[in-house]
Write a structure and sequence with these properties.
The protein has helices at about 5-25, 30-55, 70-85, 85-100, 110-120, 125-135, 140-160, 165, 170-185, 190-215, 230-240, and strands spanning about 55-60, 60-65. The protein is mostly helical and about 240 residues long. The protein starts with a helix and ends with a helix.
Amino acid sequence: MKGLGTIINTIAVIAGSGIGMFLKNGMKQKMQDILMQTCGVAVIFIGVAGTLQGMITVADGIIQTKGAMLLIFSLVIGGVIGQAIDIEKLLDALGEKIKTIAKAKEDNRFVEGFVNTSLIICVGAMAIVGSIQDGLKGDYSMLAAKSILDFVIVLVFASTYGLGVMFSSIPILVYQGGITILTVLVGPFLGKILIENLSYVGSALIFCVGVNIAFGKKFNVGNMLPALFVPVAYELILYFIK
């Protein structure tokens, strides 16, 4: 069944958030801080690994890199577009709206938890490639593995941020579900190179999110999200040139 991976992932996020919220009152602040820091470091290495996997090749025993210019242009162009639109402001506004609907106006960390968690679990190689595989072949194995990782992440986050983390299940349902549906429709036209490019650019954004978690906000990752559209535009340009 195509789309099952996203359903599993969404349920995992809701379940992990619920357990994290249950544990919140039983965890001291220092414990919450160390869990956030360690989780941030883990996300950093997930991002680094995904980026290097897409950029490094070994030919005849020689390590080579590829896609450096595409990564640079993706981040720069995406950052400029995102800053002009001010996506982070839109995400914060969405978080505030959901906060009002959830009747959690007194929760000062609701929006922070919603935005940070949504970025972590939505942006990255596993979300993109897993959703594409689910849409192409009905293979949800990668999203199932991602569900386990997300379960742990949201459990930790919910123990710190609270209810806002649970509502990150909405973006993941829409985002991954949207990719899966789009893949069902245009799957035959997607090339392996485009998927790889989307994966390592997304992983670079995951690295930035990890830094924000571990060391405090250093990057406006929300405003960098349009970087994911640059590889698509690049592929279209090459197609029409040929």
